[in-house]
Amino acid sequence: MDVAAQCPFDYNMDGTVNYDGDFIIHLGQFGMTEADLEEGEELFTDHNQNGVSDFRDLLGLTEHLGTLSCLESLPWEDCSNDLVLETYEVHTNGFSDDYSAIPPGSVTYRLFLATAFTNSDLSGVYGDSLSPMWISCPTGIFQHPFGGGMALDVNPDILTIAPAAKYTSFLSMGSWFDSCDPNFGYLIEWSEDNWYNQFLSGSGFTINSPIGGGMVGSAPLTTCEPVVPGLIFLGQFTVIGSMEISGSLNIQLRDYQGFSTEPSVCQMEGLTFNSENAQIFGCINTEAMNFDPMATFDDSSCVAYGDFNGDGEVDVADVLQFLNEFGCVLDCSYSDLNGDGVVNVFDLLLLLGYLG
Ligand SMILES: [Ca+2]
Ligand SMILES: [Ca+2]
Ligand SMILES: [Ca+2]
Ligand SMILES: [Ca+2]
């Protein structure tokens, strides 16, 4: 039996749904209808059979991307994901470098998808006329001249000469510009929306054309290790001279049980975020050593008293770390367990009391 013939996404029939082959072939028909084709050609990318090769057809391919075959359609899971908007930095006095300036009162936000899946990647962040994606920011979005609209466009080496680039606005498919191998999202912009150019020019945007657009994942399982467990990074936005930002987007996520198994897929549409609900990340456990009274969102950073290395136990390794600071009289950090400004035998006695 011909495996390839049964897989509607393996256009080049090499037995795998791949980025180099099938994805590129698919893009060749993006936005086309039957009428756009040459005589005898077929609109083989119109998987949802609405007469046009639209973004949702592309999602059909990206959910299979990297799989060995697609003999059966992938299982769909229920998922309840939420967006989390973090107030990352408030630029009360502004921030500038030799190349650009962030005005006073600007705020840098970071947007995350909260998911219960522990081993997943994004296969699409998108919008179309059925469910638009938009970001609204009345006062404008900061774009550093050395930045770019995607995480990968920011060269971390540039930050030493242009530190304000750290706050440039960009979208991401789970990767940070300053760490790890990214799952670089592939941008899909239909001319009618022109959304990416608007974003690059420093404004919000809407994707609501019938064809649709957004980002699709280009490689499976390369999403970065989350900085906060359970959160996938979606982008950073520095709002110019105000705090106001809101938006809505749609997500397709793949969940893996193991590297070689085929993923299952979940899709959530109409996820919204708003600066009115922005969170301050930190430890919210009042019992913890690093309790942050300003924090509103638990970022799993809590460290128990005496657990200096944060491994969940108070043991000899922590005592050794403590002894490094023993005798400290200035800026003594965590080792000053009783908070009297110095690290001495009274702190040691407290620590011995925490020993498990
Ligand atoms: Ca193929
Ligand atoms: Ca279609
Ligand atoms: Ca420990
Ligand atoms: Ca002390």
Over the alpha carbons, how many angstroms does the gyration radius reach?
A: 24 Å
Termini Cα gap: 62 Å
> Which structural class best describes the helix and strand composition?
alpha+beta
On the 0 to 100 scale, the average pLDDT is: 87
- Number of DSSP strands? 15
- Heteromolecules bound: calcium ion
Succession of helices and strands: HHHEEEEEEEEHEEEEEEEHH
Q: Give me the number of helical elements.
A: 6
What is the percentage of strand-forming residues?
15-25%
**Major sheet attributes:** 7 strands, antiparallel
Q: Which stretches of 5+ consecutive residues score pLDDT under 50?
A: none
User: What count of domains describes the coordinates?
Assistant: 3
Q: Which of globular, elongated, flat, extended, rod-shaped describes the shape? A: globular
Task: Indicate the percent of residues in helices.
Answer: 10-25%
List the main descriptive attributes of the protein structure presented here.
356 residues, alpha+beta, Type 1 dockerin domain, 3 domains, seven-stranded antiparallel beta sheet, four-stranded antiparallel beta sheet, 6 helices, 15 strands, binds calcium ion
